[in-house]
Design a protein that fits this description.
By secondary structure, the chain is an alpha+beta fold. Among the domains are: 131 residues, Beta Barrel (Elongation Factor Tu (Ef-tu), domain 3); 70 residues, Helix Hairpins, CATH 1.10.287. Helix content is 39%, strand content 26%. The strands form three sheets. The chain has a six-stranded antiparallel β-barrel with strand order 2-11-15-13-12-16. It has a five-stranded antiparallel β-sheet with strand order 1-3-10-8-5, with no helix packed on it. Strands 7-6-4-9 form a four-stranded antiparallel β-sheet. Strand 12 and strand 13 form a beta hairpin. The chain is rod-shaped and about 140 Å long. The two termini are 34 Å apart.
């Protein structure tokens, strides 16, 4: 799990970029051309837990793919906590299995052996009781000897029944309330493992998106506070152009419309697709005042580039936007 904050970071680049354009002599914009600037929506990657920054494979200005290592905080404590939680889970699962299967095999074997011995004694007692009855009928033994044989016979029968009951009970699992308690202990142990693993994952952060490593805010050896961003990423799909359309032209602009974006030093313009048109009119910002724009109502418009074209754009970069003669569709690089 990671903390990712998306910030529409302007850094004053909007005003600065167009101001430089004006100072450079933009003045009156050519017909059909609107001044604008490139903007990025940045992804700030942070950990919910604080710690010392131990590993920083990400390099400022390089590109990174989603899932690649971004930074690692010290995590010895979290690793040991996960190991302990997994050991507790294994113990709880073993206890549950033991309660669900009743007595161990060795204990069952012991009961079976005792039962077999009791059955032999019962057979001998039954034979002796029958013999004593015959002897008593012939007057060869006393009443006391017959009663003793009868008692031993009945006692051996009771012993066999007792051992048979113990064997049947031993093959059953323990009481349902004990099993339910053991299952609850397993669920709690699993939750403990999940929590410990989440804590560890917070210390080992991977890139949540693919894009440019725009900035590094902490370096190896520094203490990073909880929720403090370490790296700033700029995915290509988060790069857009912003420009202001005069009130007289806004009706001719619609979402999905293609526009052409030209940059200094690049002869061929690139395409972008309009995806946002402000519903509120505003006066042209002073920084883009010119003879053609002065004191006119304008509307903010945003358009996005194809990923290939977005990789060549730089936030704050001044551009010229042309609306005329462009159809609708998906942007092409």
């Amino acid at each position: 799990m990671r903390l990712v904050a998306v910030n529409r970071r302007r850094l004053g680049l909007a005003a600065l970029a167009v101001a430089l354009c004006v100072l450079a002599g933009c003045g009156q914009a050519p017909d059909g051309v609107l001044p604008g600037y490139v903007e990025g929506e940045f992804v700030y990657v942070a950990s919910k837990l604080g710690g010392r920054l131990d590993v920083l494979p990400a390099v400022k200005g390089s590109r990174i793919a989603a899932g690649e290592p971004l930074f690692i905080l010290e995590h010895d404590y979290e690793q040991k906590a996960l190991d302990m939680a997994e050991a507790d889970l294994a113990q709880a699962e073993n206890t549950l299995r033991d309660k669900e299967k009743g007595l161990r095999a060795e204990e069952i074997d012991q009961l079976v052996a005792s039962l077999n011995r009791a059955r032999v004694i019962k057979s001998l007692a039954e034979i002796e009781h029958s013999r004593r009855e015959n002897l008593y009928a012939s007057g060869s033994v006393s009443k006391e000897e017959l009663d003793k044989a009868r008692t031993e016979h009945e006692s051996s029968q009771a012993w066999v029944r007792e051992l048979e009951a113990k064997l049947a009970t031993g093959k059953l699992p323990q009481r349902i309330d004990q099993i339910m308690a053991a299952r609850a202990a397993v669920d709690a142990a699993r939750a403990g493992v999940a929590q410990a693993r989440w804590n560890l994952e917070q210390k080992i952060q991977a890139a949540p998106v693919s894009g440019l490593v725009f900035d590094i805010l902490h370096y190896v050896g520094e203490w990073v506070a909880a929720s403090s961003p370490v790296a700033v990423l700029l995915p290509p799909e988060n790069v857009k152009v912003r420009f202001f359309v005069p009130e007289a032209l806004v009706a001719s602009v619609s979402p999905g419309q293609r526009i052409l974006v030209a940059r200094d030093g690049i002869p061929e313009p690139v395409e972008a697709v309009v995806d946002y048109i402000s519903t509120q009119a505003e006066y042209a910002p002073p920084v883009i005042f010119s003879q053609g724009f002065r004191e006119k109502l304008v509307f903010l418009v945003e358009a996005r580039f194809a990923p290939e074209a977005a990789r060549t754009m730089h936030p704050g970069q001044p551009v010229d936007v042309r609306l005329a003669g462009v159809s609708q569709g998906t942007p092409q690089p």
